[in-house]
């Protein structure tokens, strides 16, 4: 027994020494970048971010006090934190810095090696397979899905017009319904069934994994097993994977049965909507069909204003039709500006993480060593007065003018070769969800909007 304990202790000390040696090697090569002060021995600045709830405030403080490019130590890991335009452009436009940061590993058990988490080589193959699923000819089929779920959302909110409410759970549930129906071809009825085991599993998994990133116990796989979140995660994974797997198998069988009865009619309007899952069932890798697990990983990944009112009146002539078309959505220029400005102030992806797989030479011969994790802090970049006049002001008209001339200053969904694949899907869904019921059902009113937001970050 004593020998076994000594062996484990030796292994742990050796692992710890390796981690610290790696960190100090990176730190020495990054001496050209200012370091965030105030770190504690061993812990570094990990206490600044708590369980993840204070990470945006902490990163804002770092780039404000230490500079737009700085380094910070969180436990045994050294990070580059940046809002610097040139650095953002350098990293995101690079074809050599495509691997996601090490912190994405916490999502492995849930999402596997799907498009979000895949290394560069697998990502290139997966992107090629999945891209056709986001063609407009397919996405347009789901406008009625967006509209239907938007109508449910508006009915929910209508009952609470005279009281203060937290919009986040309602918006989240609506989004989950839209994503599941688009991705899997089935609805989870998150808005109508808030107590659903599947809905709760999705939401709580996000909370658990974000908390794990900033937990000294959670960051190590061995010590993570000593926490209650480990057992909650395993329970949620069973629910999530079982649901997705059963849907994949059912749709595969349905597709097989349909192929046997196919009459040869190619008219897409007379066929069932081609969900993202259906596209994957038809896809191949090097001539072979995707396995159920490969499909499950991609499906699970897919799952992770007065002037605007006048615009609707102009487009629809005072009468909102029963169905909003893609052409209608394309005419809603100011609504698009409103959504863009919202995403500037509160981007869905406030952090983008990349890691180098070899030494990279930056400007003036400065080196970014192999294994360096870089946090591209888009939340902070969107508030940079260099690129956004009066950045704290909500002003959609800035997107009507030529104010934003730097393409890497506005990054709500990343940029460059590894940007978000479903930007067109997001554009259709966010507009059609709110336009018909959101602007036609209610009259113009003026009321204060209280912005009580969560400071927990998600990474991309």
TrEMBL record:
Highest rank taxon of the organism: Eukaryota
Pfam families assigned to the protein according to its UniProt record, in alphabetical order: p450 (PF00067)
Keyword Acyltransferase attributed: no
Cofactor(s) essential for the protein: heme
Single annotated GO MF: monooxygenase activity
PANTHER family: CYTOCHROME P450 4AE1-RELATED, CYTOCHROME P450 FAMILY 4
Entry's family note: Belongs to the cytochrome P450 family.
Protein name as it appears in the record: Cytochrome P450
Binding site for heme: 420
InterPro entries according to UniProt: Cyt_P450 (IPR001128), Cyt_P450_E_grp-II (IPR002402), Cyt_P450_sf (IPR036396), Cytochrome_P450_Monoox (IPR050196)
Keywords: Heme, Iron, Metal-binding, Monooxygenase, Oxidoreductase
Keyword Magnesium: no
